[in-house]
Amino acid sequence: MDVKTKVQMLVQQVVEAYLKEKTQKNQEKSIAILLGYQSPNPAEVMKAVNPLLKSYDVTLMLSKDWLPSINELAGKSYVLLEETSQQELLAIIEKSSVLVVPAASYHLLSKLALTMDDEVAVWLAIQFQLLGKPIVIANNYVEPNVYQQIHAPHSIQDRLQSYIRQIQVDQVKWVPLRKLIQTVEDQIAASKEKQALILAKHVEKAYQNGLNELVVPTRSKVTPSAKDLAKDLKIQINKTDSLKGGTQ
Length: 248
Known about the structure:
Helix content: 40-55%
Strand order of the largest sheet: 3-2-1-4-5-6
Order of helices and strands: HEHEEHEHHEHHEHEHEEHE
Number of strands: 10
Structural class: alpha/beta
Number of helices: 10
Shape: globular
Largest sheet: 6 strands, parallel
Strand content: 15-25%
């Protein structure tokens, strides 16, 4: 074997080792993907979803409308929304660091902006928000295109933009499908750096809820008054992985 061939083999081994390590690290991060709304182009959605399935530990939640596209999932297991209890969904929320919604709708947009949880898909998203966990929504086919902007009444456009602005204020990432992977990666990194502020009112609420332990993200800051009240009420404040949180 000549020197050139040896060098090429070594380079290939280094690259393969790097990619394997990166994939293993990503797979330690659990995310949830919600396919609860129809799309006019499901093939495009599945093309965007597949890299996430390969790179992360994914819990895939489907409505029955997506079953015809199941062959595109490369054998990935899934949970049917219509057949899953709220308790089981809460367990999925608990272990997942990010919620990804690759196919949205005006229905989802309006209800999420108004915090209306009268259907399971919106309820799921709101539960992620209440735990401070990131949500990434693909805006394809929902964000008005140039022709819709030209022809649609301004009242409709203004209403849609107000909903979009509201969910963005609520820290939902509203991005094209092509930016899903990078946005998920960015949100996981940002979550690790997130600092929650634990106040006395949080300790009091834990006491009212009958808890004797308050589990908070590792980087949380606990105020002196919260520490004193926790001591008085005999509530332990314990820190854990910032990507996780209780559903109490």
